[in-house]
Structure to design on (119 residues):
């Protein structure tokens, strides 16, 4: 049984930083592209960043967020710096064997962690 468990969300002031973690179990972690998505209230879930051997960032977070992974720990991270109120959302970890980082192409999802950025 595959499990993805996010942690590290919380309340932070604008300009601050948070680091999200996602611990994976029940899958061969190194075989998967890992991704972070977010969903703001009333909006669609969208990709934020992805990583396997290379990385991808959404234009809205490029230069502020850093995705990384530790295959020995089966964990993927999202370092979020210079946070803005518009980054407020539930952040989800996801895993896929697809080369496409879209909601419909993810094989597994975590339950999400809430990030709130106050102005």
């Amino acid at each position: 049984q595959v499990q993805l468990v996010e942690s590290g969300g919380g309340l932070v002031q604008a300009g601050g930083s948070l680091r999200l973690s996602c611990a994976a179990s029940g899958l061969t972690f190194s075989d998967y592209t890992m991704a972070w998505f977010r969903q703001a209230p009333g909006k669609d879930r969208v990709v934020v960043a992805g990583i396997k051997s290379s990385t991808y960032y959404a234009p809205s977070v490029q230069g502020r967020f850093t995705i990384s992974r530790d295959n020995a720990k089966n964990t993927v991270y999202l370092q979020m710096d210079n946070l803005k109120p518009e980054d407020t959302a539930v952040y989800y970890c996801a895993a896929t064997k697809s080369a496409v980082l879209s909601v419909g192409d993810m094989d597994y999802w975590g339950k999400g962690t809430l990030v709130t950025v106050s102005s």
Summary: The chain has a mean pLDDT of 97. The chain has no helices and eleven strands.
